[in-house]
Amino acid sequence: MQTAFLIIYTIFYFIALLALLPHEYFKRPKAIRNRWIREKFGFFKKSFPNFILSNKRKRVWIHAISVGEVIGVTTLVKKLSEKYDVILSTITDTGQSVAMQRFRELPVNIIYLPFDTPCAVLRTIKFFKPSALILVETEIWANLISLSARKFPVIIVNGRLSKKSFKGYKKIKFFIKPLLNKISMLCVQDETYKNHFLALGAEEKKIHVTGNLKFDIELKVIPFEWEKFIPKPVIIAGSTHETEEELILKTFLEINTAGTLIIAPRHPERFDEVEKLIGSTIINTSQNITFKRLRDIERDLESSPSKIPDLKEGSKFILLIDKIGILGSLYRIADIAIVGGSFIPHGGQNPLEPAYWKKAIVCGPSMHNFPFIEEFIREKACLSTDRENLKITLQNLIENREFRNSFGEKAYDIFLKKSGGTTRTLKLLESILP
Asked: What dotted CATH number matches 227-417?
């Protein structure tokens, strides 16, 4: 029965692949298209011409879909790389970029996850010969799990099933249950997710509540040459999505105070679009505003260290971040952090990076991707607001330093309380990894 469902799944997957492949190929920068298409079909020889299988170290394949998952398992990857060679796959280009930055000095090979077809998956397994597959969060790919489980342990770490995903999977429980039974171990974030997996048919003896690995992030202190020149206070809007930049920008311009707004769009292909939005918005205002892209500031400072933006007293400064992988460290210079993806029905982006730096966190009403935010809000470690009240929320934080510092301290306290998931996960992995 399961074999029949896998065949049906694969047929439908091929149909969807044929329909979506041209769009997925051409939406990528020309420089990476050929590599992307090769690796998606499981051909890695050209990407790794000098790849040599070592007999001294085993290999572990870790799959983390995008930036958030890569950041969340950074400590885990570093610890595992002390004993194993790591193959780290992602689906998104931004996930690739961040992974390459974070692990460039470690025995970690970064690849695109192959298409979930038997041929592509088997070619990948044959080339890298991993001894285990670790899936991060909710990456349930039928052929990947089924074919891998025949050869080595498959493990889920930092497991989660949102209400939406859970409802969807329940409708096809007859298909999901056999897949979950092929998984050797499920390390999940909390009891709620454990119950979700149990309801889908996972075996209780395989499920372990280990906590959320994203609370174990390690962020570097990156000194930015320009940071000492920008007006205070500093508001950072991180991982923003379409329409959010316009909302936050207009709100910032309405606030009656000097300061800096730093906008970091979630997707790099939108950098130029957001630049045009900012330019067209501020051109019609009479305020004293300076606007720069990060690349321009860095270029100017490189050519002449004394060449800084002309920031007059009482002025406003807007900075567009057009670089991937620095947002987590950038929050260090913020006074207030606005969580992107939360003012649209997206589910929010990770609020833990500003919590790491003890910053006051502001989010919109859509944060269902991060259920733990409810505790932050309840404990006054995060301010939840809507579009209509964003201005008054920011104004209150700007005008009351003790008020915003209190939110930052409480956020950090919760952050510390919930850390340790990586250590618990590693102890469990020791019992199953070769």
From this structure: 3.40.50.2000
